[in-house]
Design brief:
66% helix; single chain; 0% strand; 71 residues; mainly alpha; disordered C terminus
Length: 71
Amino acid sequence: DLTPAEGRVAREIAVGASLEIAAGNLGLSIETVRTYIKRIMTKTGTRRQVELAVLLSGLSRLPPSVIEQAP
């Protein structure tokens, strides 16, 4: 399961945001976003960011509240 912070980063990636854009949108450093992406990739079994983006693309249609409240 993703943490709420990982969920917010996942949503940014799902809508095609770059690391820099995601960091700016979420008020995080680029290094923090990288750390979250690495954790998300481990949890989802993906090896490349593009694989992660494809996997998460369905999340872009969900409202943020659903992602943030995920168990």
